[in-house]
Specification:
Two copies of one chain form a homodimer.
Chain A: E1 3-8, H1 16-31, E2 35-40, H2 46-57, H3 63-70, H4 72-86, E3 92-95, E4 102-104, E5 113-116, H5 119-126, E6 130-134, E7 137-140, E8 146-148, H6 153-165, E9 169-174, E10 195-197, H7 198-206, H8 214-223, E11 227-231, E12 239-242, E13 258-262, E14 265-274, H9 279-289, E15 297-299, E16 308-316, H10 320-329, H11 331-334, E17 338-342, E18 345-351, H12 361-371, E19 378-382, E20 385-391, H13 395-405
Parallel strand pairs in A: 1-2, 1-9, 2-6, 3-6, 4-7, 9-11, 10-12
Antiparallel strand pairs in A: 4-5, 7-8, 11-12, 13-18, 14-16, 14-17, 15-16, 18-20, 19-20
């Protein structure tokens, strides 16, 4: 008998029929002899509808009350799901984040999980029931106010509950069959990965793969919770996200996990900054002060002895206006001449834990882009990732070229292992 | 400075514009120097929509989960209301029933309030904020499950919070201007009552007056909480519901508070019951076993020495089918010949605390009905009420005739005081 935590997102419980389908799957898992805990999101568009309602009433900043409002969404879905499970002849009890012991920081809308004390969940399991836990929500440790966890919150709830219960697996149900070597809409030959490490999944998620949020993967890595990403429609085996050595059944892991892309970033170039110490720091202090998340940074060398330099960085498009305003507000201290904004960019990233021990990866990566006629604007790397910024209209071609060059196309069978000397 | 508890029902917060209007009234009360606690219902049709959703998912009996579901309704309205109040420059915090310390029995859907421990509400008041409390909901003392209070629940929440806080007044905002001497849709000359006693309001409510539920009035009477029933639209002074002597500013209270009517009942007549001891008891045991609320009971005398008798009783129409089924199921033991069901009845009731000390009330009551040509089918009385059952189509005429006979029409000025010898 296993303890299985399952997470269902909003699209899996979008209406009554979908809820009944999910309930059947949960009941089957229970009847197969497992203990089952479920984390569930709000139904379909409920959260957006509640946000619309809030905007009708107020454009003010009422973070505590907004969290109170939004948490009604999971309350509805979890109660309906519990009813549908009970109709399958399986006991079920739903619990709010607070009732399930999801203790968070006070940061409304973006709360961090501090602790999970799932006494009532454990009791429900001991009573033979399925426990349904509201995703995305918790209760603040200090004020006892209701909080929400922000983006990726329900996945994080599931992983956190799984960690606290010592679950055997955290199954994340979604609308795709798992994690793929690339987005199948761009690369039709992309293959489903049977297994990917936490580190690789983190890099893929941070590079634009949308199937899991980095935060949930970080949590799983910290507490070593095996995640199984799978389809709530097909019921097929999906992708396991685990530690490097955990449950590995092949001696040699493929070097490359996949190719991720991201179309949601923009590039800001700050031109004519005096090339003296402290100016770059001043620039990024201004940006950080506006709560902007900077991704890649490139500083051009002052090639012509002008005493001036240019700095480019990428950031989410949604934070572009705030960043520019912050930079211009500090213009006197930064001393730059001009700020340029460009949201016609794309980012392609190659991720693989095997990069650490393999060589020639970079050469092949850049060669593939060159052969495809893709121009590279910025580069960044980690020990298991290479990312480049391209023109937005060249992004698809870049993803396809890299995917093919590393033997990831499904017709090629297993990804090949390269030798060589450094990258 | 007073402590004011205000209650707003679903129609007062039916959409964003209504919520903003209510928020303005609350903010004005606060700015006038009062401490304010608000109990609020779910917006407009939210509860019905959630019930529809539940029926789409399941027709089963999932009382715990249904309560979890329905309590999402007040969560939405109270959070939105708190936002709108904050936009008026007044601090506001919303609290679920559980957070506000509304401790109830475990009876899902019909929970009784056992205790109120409003520590967080008090803290919010001390912080200078308006506290918004979800109406209709609480948390069970034993299991910590979320409960709902059933019909009239939000009014009861308001009164219970007011009692626990020792509030100076509990203002119940509704869509009418107060309690009237009769339903103005039937009696256009009906007058608003400035003041009515708990006992009178209880009898009026139990006799069909819909402005307050008996349960909420009972609670107010037990803890001596002054209720002020008033319109959320007009802002005019409404009707005060208080103890007999409390705040009385006239030496002689009017005898009659008003005329109530009820069109929601039915009459069941059980014919040919053996006229021996225990048969009536057996009949009503059967009915009680089906959880039916019996109102009036009449047993006809066995006039013709047949050894058989007939028993009639009234009950809510909605419980008719259950009652008939229960009686027929026990037919062997009750021994009756036939059951007749009649939902074409109406009930008119005259209520007034002054009946206790006045005489001639009954004679005038029956005289008025006789003069109006209204036939009387059943009679019941308490020390401050007379009720009769009539044909449904004669009900309006009966209400009008009684209203006029007791000088309640607005053109008559104050209700007159009758003398005489007993009724």
């Amino acid at each position: 008998m296993s303890l299985v935590v399952q997470k269902y997102g909003g699209s899996s419980v979008s209406d009554a029929a979908a809820i009944k389908r999910v309930a059947q799957r949960i009941a089957e898992t229970k009847k197969a002899g497992n203990d089952v805990v479920v984390a569930v999101s709000a139904m379909g568009d409920t959260t957006d509808e509640l946000l619309d309602l809030a905007h009708e009433v107020s454009d003010g900043n009422h973070a505590r009350e907004l969290d109170m409002l939004l948490t009604a969404g999971e309350r509805i879905s979890m109660a309906l799901l519990a009813m549908a499970i009970r109709d399958q002849g399986v006991g079920a009890q739903s619990f709010t984040g607070s009732q399930a012991g999801v203790i968070t920081s006070e940061h409304h809308g973006k709360a961090r999980i501090i602790d999970v004390t799932p006494g009532r969940v454990v009791k429900a399991i001991e009573e033979g029931d399925v426990a349904i836990v509201a995703g995305f929500q918790g209760v603040s440790v200090d004020t006892k106010n209701i909080t929400t966890l922000g983006r990726g919150g329900s996945d994080t709830t599931a992983v956190a509950i799984a960690a606290a219960l010592g679950a055997d697996v955290c199954e994340i149900y979604t609308d795709v069959d798992g994690v793929f070597t690339a987005d199948p809409r761009i690369v039709p030959t992309a293959r489903r990965l049977e297994r990917v490490t936490y580190e690789e999944m983190l890099e893929l998620a941070a590079s634009g793969a949308k199937v899991l949020m980095p935060r949930c993967v970080e949590y799983a890595r910290r507490y070593d919770v095996p995640i199984h990403v799978r389809s709530s429609f097909s019921g097929k085996e999906g992708t396991w996200v685990t530690a490097d050595t955990d449950k590995g059944d092949t001696m040699e892991e493929p070097i490359i996990a996949g190719v991720a892309h991201d179309r949601s970033e923009a590039k800001i170039t700050v031109i004519g900054i005096p090339d003296v110490p402290g100016k770059a720091a001043r620039l990024f202090e201004a940006v950080a002060g506006a709560d902007v998340n900077v991704d890649m940074i490139v500083q051009n060398v002052s090639a012509h002895a002008t005493g001036l330099t240019d700095i480019s960085f990428t950031l989410p498009q949604s934070e572009g206006a705030a960043a520019i305003a912050a930079i211009e507000a500090d213009k006197a201290e930064i001393g730059h001449a001009e700020v340029r904004y460009d949201d016609e960019i794309g980012k392609v990233s190659l991720v693989g834990a095997g990069m650490r021990s393999s060589t020639g990866i970079s050469a092949r990566f850049f060669g593939a882009l060159r052969d495809a006629g893709v121009n590279i604007e910025m580069i960044s790397t980690s020990d298991i990732r290479i990312s480049v910024v391209t023109r937005a209209e060249q992004l698809d071609a870049a993803v396809q070229a890299v995917h093919t060059a590393f033997g990831l196309d499904s017709s090629d069978g297993e990804a090949v292992v390269y030798g060589g000397s450094g990258r």
